[in-house]
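Hi there, hope your week has been kind to you so far. No rush at all, and the record is pasted right below.
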Amino acid sequence: MNMSYTTEERGKRNTLSYRVFFKNSEGVYISPFHDIPMYADEAQNFFNMVVEVPRWTNAKMEIATKDALNPIKQDVKKGKLRYVANVFPHKGYIWNYGAIPQTWEDPGHKDTDTGCCGDNDPIDVCEIGNKVCSIGEVIKVKVLGTLALIDEGETDWKVIAINVEDPEANAFNSIDDVRRLKPGYLEATVDWFRRYKVPDGKPENQFAFNGEFKDKDFAISIVKSTNDNWKALVSKKSGGELNCTNTCVSYSPFLCTKEAAQAVVDATPPCGNADPVPSDVDKMYYYEKK
């Protein structure tokens, strides 16, 4: 399935008003959560990934699951824009970070593997290719494995994947290939997720399976199960606090017209000049590993 997507910025970057909306190849506004297919190529098990955070950056950008059309916006904590801290030796996010569309980690479903419920978001992806992607880029990825983060008591799967257009992609077909060809990357990934909230005064995160990565087949089965959760969500009469407005899911009661989608975007402020990033975002934090 070869579909192209474009993005449109609204508001001012590095402010509360900033949004990145998505359009399909016909120029219709869409939801990156609901309208982009999970599969890029089902026969080859290639998945679409919506890039939320480019590698080496700090702004915690994410699909706004509670807003109409689910644009990407910066996460807010206590009224302030959220930036991920640099825990030495890491600078920002150490992969292109994003989500697989048409997936949902159901907070009402207790995971049989982790014993914890889902985190109410699409499933997360850490893309390990060479290219630094941009916010809102939609790429095709090959799933290689997964890590089961327990984040403040919630199951939060982290899928490890590589862009199929990466020049080295053919060499990566398993989690062991990552261990062999990018030594240290998986260990750094566990370290990153374990400690990234410590500068905010929170304890280290925990993992299921003792922080071991599960293999490709296991990871794909998890992604497919979160797709089943999403289908149930978008078919319901109520999405709860999540916004399921979409323009392409024909069986969904939340389907809206392209005119209604246009009105959602028109109601946001137009794109303006970016504000500066706060200088303390570059601060480096140092902790002894326990």
In short: The first strand starts at residue 6 and ends at 10. The chain has a mean pLDDT of 96.
